[in-house]
Amino acid sequence: MTYVAAIDVGGTTMKGGLVTRDGTIHHAERRPTPRAGGPEEVVGAVAAFVADLARPRDGVRPLAVGLAVPGLVTPTHAVFSAAFGWRDVPAHAFAPGVRLPVALGHDVRAAGEAELAYGEGGRDVLYLPIGTGIAGAVVLSGALYGGAGGWAGQVGHIPVRPDGAACGCGQRGCLAAYASGGAVAARCGLPGAEEVVRAVLAGDARAVAVWDEAVEALALALATYTLVLDPAAIVIGGGVSQAGDTLLVPLRARLSARLGFRQAPEVRASSLGARAGLMGAGLLGWRAAPGA
Amino acid sequence: MTYVAAIDVGGTTMKGGLVTRDGTIHHAERRPTPRAGGPEEVVGAVAAFVADLARPRDGVRPLAVGLAVPGLVTPTHAVFSAAFGWRDVPAHAFAPGVRLPVALGHDVRAAGEAELAYGEGGRDVLYLPIGTGIAGAVVLSGALYGGAGGWAGQVGHIPVRPDGAACGCGQRGCLAAYASGGAVAARCGLPGAEEVVRAVLAGDARAVAVWDEAVEALALALATYTLVLDPAAIVIGGGVSQAGDTLLVPLRARLSARLGFRQAPEVRASSLGARAGLMGAGLLGWRAAPGA
């Protein structure tokens, strides 16, 4: 068996593993992202994770390393991330002393590539992972679309409520300020989105109100996306997609209500779930592997 | 000289002419669209216009007829238009007794095709004609993008002010309810957008306030479009684009203000201006001409 080492570096958690060519994940492991410790500590934590995954197992070493990271990223540099505060970190800084090819990629785009390669796919689809933040992978005519400068898919910063809640990006009323996992947790005073969903199911009034606002904000953003790009389907991924029908049932109803004169596209949860990012990091690694 | 007969059927005005292969317009003529008279009267007015344009001049007859119409449209049928109330009107109904090929096309998409063929173009551009209503032609990687079902580009119904002003489409808070030529005129109690621009320039308080709201609504919609699709340029067309700097200068400033963490794309008026629709109707005609 041959595999690559892959890590999906999220705002809260790093997911790592060894990924075979067909997308199967072995030795999956989660570690916390030490975001509070500053940019260097995050880079160091990724490097330690890479070193552990790069060790030979049964005499076999990974062929390459694939890292999916947030922010602005090229195959060779993590150029900028507001979440981690890093600037122009070269790929080898994440794997010092590991003599393997290292490929970087954008976390959401990598997850979108995994959806295209291993998921249910579709030619005209918005793939929207909702985790600590929200960003989208815009799939048009069967391929990821990056826009004129590679910045397409910033769905999380659509101004759904002009002059509404403050967002980490410096603007107001962004979708992410209402509907990201980070936002719903903060607005409920709970540690994470998982706890919010549990509180919603238990009928907690505050959680129900926050969830309601989140779903309506999502419906507004998805109505806009639908009007502009007429997708066949919207596929929700990331941690928040694990809320299942607690999210999907009211979201479908509210999206339809916001699209009076046309049918809403199908809205479903990703079949890859939270694994998509790690599978996408694996694809990055495979693209960098010798002979690939 | 060979030419086709072309008509751009707008909500207020029909623009007709004879269009040569290179997009040059001869014998341009405007007639009012008798919208208040109901769907049959509009079809009859188009048919009379077609008959006049189809007459031989200096012994030369047009090779074909191209008609750009609003709503849902196929090359052979005007399927549906909320503006005109028509349903499934076959192409030949617009040209009875005229023995020429007749091609129908969507007005905004036809104008977008003209921008691509004759305008300054660009690979990743939103072409946004603002006339009686607002719709967009989404140009991605150098081609018009229609979406999964041909409904892409409904920029005029982006919900910029959730639960705001009522729109003709039945929803609330749509861009078109604030920024279309029809909306600014109605909100000022003036006959058309041209009069509104004159009142703005004269410092009329009501017109200034309405214009201000229109520009802010446009900035919100264009910020959203930019975040999702990262265009290189946004090209404003239609009658309202003739406001020039009265529109463009505040719009650029407000769009930049709504895009704190990234640069705004270039925003400019179409170099084709209000001719784009007629030139697009000409392209439709040329595509239907014998030997084309």
From TrEMBL, chains A, B:
Does Transferase count among this protein's keywords?
Answer: yes
Provide the alphabetized UniProt keywords.
Answer: Transferase
Q: Which SUPFAM superfamilies match?
A: Actin-like ATPase domain
Mention one GO molecular function: glucokinase activity
The record ties this protein, via Pfam families, to: ROK
Asked if the Swiss-Prot or TrEMBL record annotates the protein with the keyword Nucleotide-binding, the reply is no
Entry-linked InterPro entries: ATPase_NBD (IPR043129), ROK (IPR000600)
UniProt family annotation: Belongs to the ROK (NagC/XylR) family.
Q: What is this protein called?
A: Glucokinase
